[in-house]
Amino acid sequence: MAALGWLTPRRRSATARSVLAGEASAEAARKSSQDVPPEEPEFPVLGDDKAAAFFDLDNTVMQGASLFHFGRGLYKRKFFETRDLARFAWQQAYFRLAGSEDPEHMQEARDSALSIVKGHRVAELQSIGEEIYDEYMAERIWPGTRALAQAHLDAGQKVWLVTAAPVEIATVIARRLGLTGALGTVAESVDGVYTGKLVGEPLHGPAKAEAVRALAAAEGLDLSRCAAYSDSHNDIPMLSLVGHPYAINPDTKLRKHARNLDWRLRDYRTGRKAAKVGIPAAAGVGAVAGGTAAAIAISRRRR
Predict the structure, then answer these.
(1) Is 84 a catalytic residue?
(2) Cα 35 to chain center, whole Å?
(3) Cα separation of 165 and 70, whole Å?
(4) Is the Cβ–Cβ distance between 262 and 278 less than 8 Å?
């Protein structure tokens, strides 16, 4: 048996250097475990019926301004003349290049739309809106933003559009996207016929925040658990109202504001890589890539 003694490990007393090495290794392991950031909580939270999501429409859910696309559809149906179409085209080009809302242009567009629909029946415009969505709007939906909205729906939450566009247009878009509904500007009608006036003012800026606040109260929502999405600094009041604000395709002012407050940011515009504000963005470059990346990111978080 003595010949097998070499197989038995010798017991040696720990030296001061080995004790030091062991303690240093244990301390490093403890610190490294503490340095690992905690896993990001699931969002949207599955089954949270006190939460909902509120999405701006123009340049957030859809590329360009819905009102301008609607104007194109009305022109095609001879609601107005060529010179009016040229004005709509200029306003749309400005909106896409600037990436933000110019109050003067938006007011002019709303006034034009009101004068055009005056005397027409509400039901007629609703029916035409369905056709115009298919003709001009469906292909302009940002897949990335659509994926974010679907994540809320899949979590069992309600999703609302909140827009300065006429509520009839917004409702059509919301329904076609499978969303819960829409908050939009209300045009006055008497006996189902448009008068050419608004009820109150356009749902823009602070008015959006008030609409969201009122809807949340009626629905029994906890705004600290809700999310809001927009591209425009004009919607900072709405974004500030919720616990989960997102800047989507943001204009310069909103991007700066979002960075200062560590808000989450997604950018689905062609040629831009998704920026990161607060947590990893789910977007890639381009709208299609953005939608795919968002869906993958959401799926991974739920595993």
Answers:
(1) no
(2) 32
(3) 10
(4) yes
CB 227 within 8 A of CB 53: yes
DSSP state of 10: P
Query: CB of 167 within 8 A of CB of 215?
Result: no
Catalytic residue of the set 35, 49, 58, 235: 58
Give the separation between CA 135 and CA 100, rounded to whole angstroms.
24
Yes or no: say if 149 and 129 are a contact pair by the CB < 8 Å rule: no
Query: Taking each helix axis from N to C terminus, what angle separates 287-302 and 143-154, rounded to the nearest 10 degrees?
Result: 20
Q: Categorise residue 277: left if φ over 0, alpha if ψ from -120 to 50, beta otherwise.
A: beta
**Single-letter amino acid code for the residue at 169:** I
> Which DSSP symbol is given to 121?
B
Q: Which of 35, 49, 56, 231 does the annotation list as catalytic?
A: 56
185 in Cβ contact with 110 (< 8 Å): yes
In the block, residue with structure tokens 């939009």: 184
Region of 77 on the Ramachandran plot (φ > 0 left; ψ -120 to 50 alpha; else beta): alpha
pLDDT averages per 10-residue partition of the chain, 303 residues: 51 67 69 55 84 96 88 83 59 51 58 74 90 94 96 97 92 96 92 87 90 97 97 96 96 96 90 36 31 35 39
What angle is formed at CA 288 by the lines to CA 285 and CA 290, rounded to 5 degrees? 50
Please calculate the CA angle 295-301-303 and round it to the nearest 5 degrees. Answer: 105
Residues 6+ apart with CB under 8 A from 141: 61, 62, 63, 177
Residues near 76 by beta carbon (within 8 Å), at least 6 away in sequence:
135
What's residue 109's pLDDT?
57
- The structure's pTM equals 0.70
Q: Is 58 a catalytic residue?
A: yes
Q: Which of 145, 104, 99 is nearest to 283 (CA)?
A: 145
Q: How far apart are CA 169 and CA 83, in angstroms?
A: 23
